[in-house]
Amino acid sequence: MLAMNRTAFEHGLYGRLKQEAGHHWQAYIHHDFVRQLAAGTLPDGAFRCYLVQDYLFLIHFVRAYALLAYKLRTLPEIRAAVVSLEAIVKELPMHVAYCAQWGLREEEMAKEPEANETLTYTRYVLDIGQSGDVLDLLVALIPCVAGYAEIGQRLRDDPATVLASNPYAEWIQNYSDGDYLSGARAAIDQLERVGQARGAEQRFDALSAIFTTATRLESAFWQMGLTPHPTVIAV
């Protein structure tokens, strides 16, 4: 398997933003939802609730990357954003196919109401994209893209992670896959390039606030999974 260099998660602007987020970042990547995934002990209903809301979340994530492409001005930057956009669009059918294994059909998921946590997180990212510039938006997006890669790689490499007979092993494998890790590395590199071009150093405090808020909303999204929404599709 192609693995991302671990130092990629610690260096540059992304690494500094993570460090500044402190315990909020640790609460996100080591959330009890993630621990239970790794152990294979997460309740079935909690995971199915998460899958439905993640499907709804990804739709708005596509919108955010479309907004990112619109706000960029050079063709190389636009191409990089479109690559990320296409990766998410391609991920959706795979996500839908995976959900089907859990008895969740796309037409049913599309009718489900968004949980408050989904609404809050996705609209926050879109609001940052509308009110800020492209660097603000990239910072709001990166905790999800790179955070899942960091979680996936850590779980894959942790000898305590249970893979045999773990119903969530495929989820772990998906987010530790070489293609996903490469995409996350590209997103981190894009953040670094745009940050250097658009004054990240002078704006670091404001960018840190955006990053930490998005990180807190990621933790809330995990927590939402542990307290399933009452209208989640029943088997």
Automatic annotation (TrEMBL):
Gene Ontology terms: cellular component: cytosol
Alphabetical list of SUPFAM superfamilies matching this protein: Heme oxygenase-like
Source organism (scientific name): Candidatus Sodalis pierantonii str. SOPE
Name used for this protein in its record: Thiaminase
InterPro entries in UniProt: Haem_Oase-like_multi-hlx (IPR016084), Thiaminase-2/PQQC (IPR004305), Thiamine_Salvage_TenA (IPR050967)
Thiaminase-2/PQQC domain boundaries: 21-226
